[in-house]
Amino acid sequence: MVGRVALVGDAAGTVTKSSGEGIYFAAKSARMCAETIVEFSQKGDRIPTEADLKVYLKRWDRQYGMTYKVLDILQTVFYRSDATREAFVEMCADMDVQKLTFDSYLYKTVVPANPLTQLKITAKTIGSLLRGSALVP
Predict the structure, then answer these.
(1) Fewer beta carbons under 10 A from the terminal one: N or C of the chain?
(2) How far are the Cα atoms of 29, 33, 67, 101, 128 from residue 23, in angstroms, in the given order?
(3) Where are the domains of the chain?
(4) Do residues 74 and 89 lie in contact, with contact meaning Cβ atoms separated by under 8 Å?
(5) For the segment 22-33, what is each residue's pLDDT rounded down to a tens digit?
């Protein structure tokens, strides 16, 4: 059953950028889609329409859209050259980044850091990019 659920999720494009994780999101996507179909089928009395299924997409985006956006930004910034990948590795050595990453992975959502920690992470990230000449075109 998990294989079928994963296929539905994979077809929905739920593999995350930069982390490459997909099993949780594939299963969650399939479940959310199935729940929406059951909800709109009115106990099997009608076939859900395309508009009904768009409700599932809106729910998905509301729950996980920010996670995908953040991972998309990370991939865009850090996966474009060897220098930016090295800056990413350097950034990932930071304990605050590791905690934020672990918490976000554990809870499957973007877990915000307190503003001071976020400022520190941003400064270290810019420093890593500058040291690695990653900001040079």
Answers:
(1) C
(2) 10, 15, 15, 18, 31
(3) 1-79, 81-137
(4) no
(5) 788 888 888 998
